[in-house]
Each structure stands twice: as C-alpha cells, then as structure tokens.
Amino acid sequence: MGIPPVSERLLVWPVRVGQRAQPQRIRDRVVPALLRFAVAVSRTIFRGRGVGFACTVAAHLVGSGGQTSFQLGGGGAFLVTVDDTYWLQPLLLDCSYELDLDHFLRRTLTSRDVFLDCGANLGLWSIAAARVIRDPERVVAVEAGSRTFAGLIANWQANDRSFTPLHRAISDVTGREASFFASVGDHASATLVEGLAPDDAQQEIIATVSLLDIAAEQMSGDTGNRLVFVKLDIEGMERQVLATIDPQEHGNFVILYEDHGSDTTHVTAFLLERGFEVAFIADDGTLEQIRRTTLHRLDALKVNPERGYNLLAVAARGTAASRLAELYPELELGLI
Hints:
It is a single chain. This protein has 2 domains: about 5-95, no CATH class; about 100-165 and about 215-325, Vaccinia Virus protein VP39 (Rossmann fold). The chain has helices at about 25-45, 50-60, 85-95, 100-110, 125-130, 145-160, 210-220, 240, 265-275, 295-300, 320-325, and strands at about 15-20, 65-70, 75-80, 115-120, 140, 165, 170, 175-185, 190, 200-210, 230, 255-260, 275-280, 285-290, 310-315. Strand 5 (about 140), helix 6 and strand 6 form a beta-alpha-beta unit. The protein is an alpha/beta fold. The longest helix has 20 residues, at about 25-45. It is about 30% helix and about 25% strand. Strands 6-5-4-11-12-15-13-14 form an 8-stranded mixed beta sheet, sandwiched between helices. Helix 1 runs antiparallel to helix 2 and helix 2 (about 50-60) crosses helix 3. It has 11 helices and 15 strands.
C-alpha cells in the first residue's frame, strides 16, 4: 500500500511503524510487509491460525522497550505493547482501524468542535481528533479500566498531552461508585454490566461520570456552530446513557455508536423511537439513513456477526443535522 498525498490521508491510517524520533529503518518497512504476506498464506492454507502470534513476533522486531509505535496519517503516534494482538492485527495487517469512522471524521470534524471519546481504550481516536481540534480541553478521553487507562496515559504523554484523559466510567449519573469488570487477557473486553462480564474479568470500583456533565463543560461561551461528537463504546450501558440525551435539547450532538452484527435488539431501534435520525456509516464513509420503517435494512448491512458496525444519530433540524445535510447533499437523509 503506497502512502497517499497528505491532503488525502485519513486520520488513523498508519504511515510508518517503528521507533519514534528515529529515521525509519529498513526492517520497519520489511517486517510488516513480510507479516502481511505470511498471514495471507496462513489464511489460505491454515485458516488463519497463528495470526496473533505472528503479529507479536513482528511487533517485537519493529518495536522498542516492549512497545510498538504507529505514526498516524493525520499526525501523532499510537503506542501499543508488543503482545497486544487486539491492536496489532488491524494496524499491522490492515494498515487501518475502523475505516468507516476514519473517512467520516476526516470529512466532518472541524477545529471548532468537541470530541468525547467515551470508552477510549488506549486513546486512538482521541489522538486522531486532537490533530484536528487543537485544544486539549475539547478532546476528552474517558476510560474506566485501570490497566487500560495506564496505556491511555502513555499515549497522552507520547502525543504532547494533546487531549484530556479522564479515569471514570461513563454512566447516566455522576459521582456514583460502580463495579467495573475488565478481562485480564483482553483489555477491549470490559463492562459495567456484571451479566456481560468476560469469564476472566477482574472487578474494580470506579467513579461514574455523566456524559451530559462532560459535554456541559465544553459548551460554555461562544460555541457558534460547534458540534459535540460523542464516540460511545460502553458495552451494555448504551441505552442508559443515550436516554439522557434529549433530541429536542441536544441538536449539536453527533452520536457515534456501534450496533453489533449479531445484535437483533438494536440500539438503533431505541434511538429511532426517541426521535433521533440515524444513518449507517459504510467503510468508505458514505451514509445510508435507517428509518423505523426500514430497520430491516440494517440487518442486511450487518453481514458479519462478529463485527461491530458504526452508525450515527443526530436530532432532526439541529445544528448537527444541518452540517451533515451540507456535506452529504447527494443523499436524501431527511436530516433537516
């Protein structure tokens, strides 16, 4: 994959893998290329067995001090440990992560906006958003798990503290102490809902924070046409948190959320019932509106039951709907 011109680069697209602050070594280019070739062969012959192990071997070769650095297309560096297969596989093999969101945010996010990364994990989207929004106070990365938050802090420091990290659990209220369940082996598997906890979960007590309380801090003064982009990745708590957002009052919100391929009790249906306009984000960033009468279309679009699919929700006739209507005039979104 060649490097596109700067003007065409996505925010996350890794343009370089290897040690930070050093000229790129030959092996930093060759090792990922060999890895992708080996994995392609493995998937053809052995159905992909050993892919995770191959990624960790490659990461050790191009990493330093137990970490691998990905230089991102929009600027900034993303650090992961050399044994973190959750992140290594998409970034080393696919050279991308959530292409749908990457395309969409590159087109819609402006320097005046706010980005709330709720369930931020290691902070990839906060790093990307902070390259557009040059005010650390308007890019907030909220992460509940203590072990994952330590990795988020490492990325915060590696990116000149360009966003605001917050060690809290997103909920419908602020200030409550809640049990948080995080997998020992997979930091991407975590929840406040005990019934959804992974088998190897460790429990910790974490203070909660309301999404609206975080957003309120960002909307003082002259906000103009500022939008609040809310990336919501809070397994099992979506309905409780989304119920606090009133489409009549929060017309400047762009809610970005996942509807899993295997989920037939859609978060989307919940949002439509509350009066939001909803659109499916395709991998190339294009939008397709989902209405209550065409909800079955979402099932057709979610072809992979193992994948989470990104959608957006906005209030009709709000500031967010107006911007989307201008950016996507070829689509009859019905957003205004």
